[in-house]
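Per reviewer request, we include the raw input and output of the structure prediction for the construct analysed in the revised manuscript.
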Amino acid sequence: MRKLMDTLFTLAAYLAGLFMIATLLAVLSSIFGRIIPALDLPGSDAYAGYCMAAAGFLALAPTLRRGEHIRVTLIFNQLPARAQHWLDIFCHLVALGLSSALAWFSIRLVLQSREFFDISTGLDATPLWIPQIGMAVGTSLFALAFLNDLVLLLAGHTLRDASPDGEPAHIE
């Protein structure tokens, strides 16, 4: 199961990278469209924003799995190991609740946008449910990553490898 999760999160990271490249292409299209009117792509600014949002949300879960989200450990490091473990479980429960709510409402937003035929207000008139899919998928994967980590914590595993000086890697 762990290998499947890691593969899923790796695919999300690659997809986020592709959306970053798409953001670059949309911005370049907008720039060159101003210089050479024949290359103008209507709505390229909006597409750059859609791609940037998708990249950000799709990168949440892989970033969490790599231990790259910021953690404030001022109190955490002062606690004994057992208390650290229980505080970590508590924090993951809260994070799971919040990320699950975000995923729920993101999915609901996509469904409502599709049901009400919401379109962007720009010249491109893009149906909004299409760019909102990136947010819904990204937040759902984020909640899944927290659930996966919580299960590992409850099973007694540690989530991150410690550095030689005893500090968790990359998260301070």
